């Protein structure tokens, strides 16, 4: 019971720290704000080949069964464009820019510009004692992945064992990221879910398309937070998780199932690599996925549901129904909180880098 309470307190603390005001209050004033919800959508044929050239009219979005209107649209690395709506016969009206909000999945006018500049990719590398074998090969695969990403993308490189190391915060400087990759050394036991949650929290401070790519060589044996809560946070923040796991992790069925569920729920993918060649191919597949994702967003229609909201994206037209869609399946509106409680977060994140990251992004 105590362990469950600690887990719940940890996740609630992280959610609450997304508040906008820096000073704590004894009784935080909670309110839920949802502005624009962003979706990364992959459309593929049954053989996995990407379907390109679709238009906004080819997509339909519902939230809790309510039809939503697409507000912005883009394909792959092309600029995301703001759509127009028909307000009166013969007159087109631009959809207004969203007001400020603390909802991490919302996009303001400034956020729209960030979408145009590409994806923010956070790489989380397992340097626990599981990684003693094949460590150099994994570094090589990650380095090649970093070099292959387009110049418009920004990259952060983190590593983890029991604790999280932010070796390189989000930057367009490839050389800085590559130096961080080469400086990693194998360490302690693995606390994947603790450190993944902190990585997602960092990613949620930024606007635009955000992706976390995890390289893991084994199961989690040190975390206090359950993977289900990590997945829900990622869904609510609009961050896609891709996970590359080696044969060692594949040997544990529980970890395999968790990795597959977590990535699918956020619109990402899980890969299980038997060799360093498979690792390289997995990174290449992720790069291709990022280059072919459709970016869609919408302003939610009035919805009294302050809890979990289900999202469904479908294709319009009989000729398109044969294709498969991959995206996140829902979100929980984030509370806008005035105040920053401390609790367990300070233990796992004593450096307090998140406020500094938020300041850098302004």
Q: Could you describe the 3D structure shown?
A:
Helix content is 32%, strand content 27%. It is built from 11 helices and 19 strands. The longest helix has 17 residues, at 276-292. It starts with a helix and ends with a helix. Mean pLDDT is 76; it is low at 1-10, 14-32, 85-117, 336-345 and 351-362.
Descriptive labels:
single chain; 362 residues; alpha+beta; Rossmann fold; 3 domains; six-stranded mixed beta sheet; five-stranded antiparallel beta sheet; 11 helices; 27% strand; disordered N terminus; disordered C terminus
Query: What is the residue-mean pLDDT, rounded to a whole number?
Result: 76
Count of helix runs = 11
CATH class of the largest domain: Alpha Beta
Stated plainly, the CATH topology of the largest domain is called Rossmann fold
User: How many structural domains?
Assistant: 3
Can I get a quick summary?
This protein has eleven helices and 19 strands. The protein is of the alpha+beta class and 362 residues long.
Any chance you could write out the topology, listing elements then pairs?
Elements: H1 2-16, E1 30-32, E2 37-44, E3 59-63, E4 66-68, E5 70-75, E6 81-82, E7 84-88, E8 91-94, H2 109-116, E9 120-126, H3 135-148, E10 154-160, E11 164-171, H4 174-182, H5 192-203, E12 210-216, H6 227-237, E13 239-246, H7 247-250, H8 253-266, E14 270-273, H9 276-292, E15 294-298, E16 309-315, E17 324-326, E18 330-331, E19 335-337, H10 345-348, H11 353-360
Parallel strand pairs: 9-10, 9-12, 12-13, 13-14
Antiparallel strand pairs: 1-19, 2-15, 2-17, 3-4, 3-16, 5-6, 5-15, 7-8, 10-11, 16-18
Helix pairs in contact: 3-4, 3-9, 5-6, 6-8
């Amino acid at each position: 019971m105590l362990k469950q309470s600690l887990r719940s307190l940890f996740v609630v603390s992280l959610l609450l720290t997304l508040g906008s005001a820096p000073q704590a209050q004894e009784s935080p004033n909670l309110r839920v704000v949802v502005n624009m919800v962003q979706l990364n959508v992959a459309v593929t044929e049954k053989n996995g080949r990407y379907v390109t050239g679709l238009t906004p009219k080819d997509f339909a979005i519902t939230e809790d069964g309510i039809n939503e209107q697409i507000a912005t649209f883009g394909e792959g690395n092309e600029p995301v464009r703001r759509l127009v709506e028909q307000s009166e016969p013969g007159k087109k009206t631009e959809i207004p820019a969203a007001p400020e909000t603390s909802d991490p999945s919302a996009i303001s006018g400034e956020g729209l510009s960030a979408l145009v500049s590409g994806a923010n990719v956070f790489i989380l590398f397992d340097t626990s004692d599981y990684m003693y074998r094949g460590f150099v090969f994994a570094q090589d695969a990650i380095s090649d992945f970093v070099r292959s990403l387009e110049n418009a993308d920004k990259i952060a490189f983190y590593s983890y064992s029991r604790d999280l190391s932010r070796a390189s915060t989000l930057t367009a400087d490839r050389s800085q990221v590559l130096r961080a990759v080469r400086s990693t050394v194998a360490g302690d036991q693995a606390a994947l879910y603790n450190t993944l949650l902190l990585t997602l929290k960092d990613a949620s401070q930024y606007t635009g398309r955000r992706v976390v790519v995890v390289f893991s060589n084994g199961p989690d044996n040190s975390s206090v937070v359950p993977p289900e809560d990590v997945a829900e946070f990622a869904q609510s923040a609009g961050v896609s998780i891709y996970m590359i796991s080696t044969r060692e992790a594949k040997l544990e069925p529980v970890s395999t199932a968790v990795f597959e569920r977590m990535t699918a729920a956020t619109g990402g993918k899980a890969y299980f690599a038997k060799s360093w060649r498979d690792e390289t191919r997995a990174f290449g597949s992720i790069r291709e996925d990022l280059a072919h994702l459709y970016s869609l967003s919408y302003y939610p229609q009035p919805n009294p549901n302050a809890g979990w909201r289900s999202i469904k994206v479908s294709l319009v037209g009989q000729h398109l129904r044969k294709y498969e869609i991959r995206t996140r399946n829902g979100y929980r509106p984030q509370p806008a909180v005035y105040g920053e409680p401390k609790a367990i977060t300070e233990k796992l994140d004593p450096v307090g880098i998140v406020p500094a990251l938020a300041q850098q992004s302004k």
